[in-house]
Amino acid sequence: MKINKIILSTWLLVIAMFIYIEARIPAEKTEEDYELAVPMGRMQNYMDKLYFSGSAKNWALSSFYLHEIEEQIEEIAHSDIIENEADISLLAKTLLDQIDLFEEEITKKNQDVFIHEYTNLMGKCNDCHIASKHEYIKIKIPSKSMFENQDFN
Ligand code: HEC
User: Hey, whose CA ends up nearest to atom 18 of ligand 1?
Assistant: First the structure.
């Protein structure tokens, strides 16, 4: 009986130590914690919507989607993500100027300018996929929206 009590209290002590050590380990943001595929999937959607709103000359809506893309890129840029030895956050930062320029160009309300900037931004998506060894993920100009339930006009 006495032996059992000693074993039990030893176990409780060990468990308490584990809990204590675990609580003291600083929470580091690792690749596993940050699921990059989530903002990427969102951006894929926004790129579709951006294209069809811009093609419909709906400049208010296209500005909205460009802003949504910018928010995703900003979050990635500020999250210290390294993947496949590529500094994803640093690469993401290089897109911010491009997006600022695009935002300015949208105010010109010119479809050709829009398509030009859209193609440049899309090129940046694919550049980063190449740089991070995901060259098989290729974003292209869509021919039909994924979102048939939304009016882009
Ligand atoms: C800073 C680098 C970087 C930029 C910029 C970038 N990507 Fe990615 N993308 C990645 C990485 C890395 C992955 C792989 C994510 C993973 O490992 O889960 C990825 C994965 C994806 C995927 C696959 C996930 C899925 O849901 O099928 C899509 C789609 C995608 N990106 C779209 C885009 C689009 C659209 C843009 C531009 C608006 C973009 N990406 C810009 C680095 C980037």
Answer: 37
